[in-house]
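Hi support team,

I submitted a single chain yesterday and got back a structure, but I'm not sure I'm reading the token output correctly. Could someone confirm the output below corresponds to the sequence I sent? I've pasted both exactly as they appear in my results page.

Thanks,
R.
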Amino acid sequence: MSSQFHTEFKPITIQPQEIESKSFEMITEELGPHPFTDDQYRVVQRVIHATADFDLGRSMKFHPDAVEAGIRAIQAGEPIIADVQMVQVGISKPRLKAFGGDVHVYISDADVMQEAKAENTTRAIISIRKATSQIKGGIYAIGNAPTALLELIRLVKEGKANPSLVIGVPVGFVSAAESKEELAKLDIPFITNLDRKGGSPVAVAAVNALSILATERSERA
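Hi R., thanks for writing in. Yes, this is the structure output for that exact sequence:
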């Protein structure tokens, strides 16, 4: 007896670009009217595409200069600083490398782990301190660790960090929503969402959307 699984369902298409285009059409139709600018919507659209979560998409919040700041930073080859490897892995590298940029993550560095243990604190906090001590500007993409976002906010307030853009979308129950509320109070370019939802796929989607916009701008120039 054959154990092969059979189904009557057939996919609408198996062409990768058509799948993405059809998905974006469905997102636009289902989302309906929204308050986002055209460029902000490109970010929101990719966030929804990555998560299938329209409520998350609707909860996205942008500093007025966020998208432009992100595009400029990518075109200038500024580094992306990720809080965890999941964000680093998901970001499309070729588009960044075309501008001379790359993605950095410090959370598993030996010195970070050692210092976090010595201070009895999170590796995420120490990794942000290391990043800001080594990198001026840059785009911080935080999708996992609220403590990383809170530490970055502290350093910004103290004048010890000056990121070009903060994508702060950590997911979770402990301090996640609160950290994003604090980010939204800062007068620096940011992209966030104001609830517990978020995660590495959201941070990845936002960076990838910005790198696509940056590429399109350069191609039109």
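A quick pointer for reading it: The longest helix spans residues 200-220. Let us know if anything else looks off.

Best,
Support desk
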